[in-house]
Amino acid sequence: MTDKVSSSREKEISNRAERNAGSCAKSDAVGEVVSPSYHGDSYRGAEKAAYDAAFKKGSSSEGSSSSGGSSGGGGLCYLTTACTKAKGLPDDCLELSVLRCFRDKILISTSKGRKAVREYYEVAPEIVNAVNGRGDVKKIWQDTYEDVRHAVSLVLLGDFNAAFRHYQRMSLKLKEKYLV
Predict the structure, then answer these.
(1) Alpha helix stretches (DSSP H) within 20-93
(2) Where are the domains of the chain?
(3) Terminal CA-CA length for the chain
(4) 41: left (phi over 0), alpha (psi -120 to 50) or beta
(5) Which segments within 5-44 are labelled E, that is strand?
(6) What angle do CA 174, 175, 180 make, to 5 degrees?
(7) Contacts (Cβ under 8 Å, ≥6 apart) of 129
(8) Can you list the residues of the chain whose pLDDT is less than 70?
(9) Which of these, 51, 35, 99, lies nearest to 73 by C-alpha position?
């Protein structure tokens, strides 16, 4: 029974990602799709298939990735970066790639999204600094990683509003716990 449920879940994720293909396509300057690194068992088949469906099908006209800047493109995913570093994942892992794309292609395409991104950049570095100054830093980031993974799953399923709300709640919870 578990195999049927798992297989069904993998199909569902893959099918939804197929329908949402292109909405978060990420390409480099020459138009080739950039794929994140996969590490061991941390990415199961359904997640890799969903990522491949959503990102590898994107056209090169979707835009290119740049580095830095609060308007998107590349780095500055403070909380997710802290979590993935605690897990030993690289800067081009699935979580960072998906959430950066979500920010760059979905969030900053609306005024509400741009405002949320600006607010995030004001508080997230302070949260990271506060957490990194604690003795239980690794545990905090590893626990927070589960919230990040859930947000990534929601993005891959195309439930962008739920992904946004989940990540926003996670950020607020961290702010209230470590900055107040």
Answers:
(1) 45-55, 78-86
(2) 2-178
(3) 46
(4) alpha
(5) none
(6) 125
(7) none
(8) 1-75
(9) 99
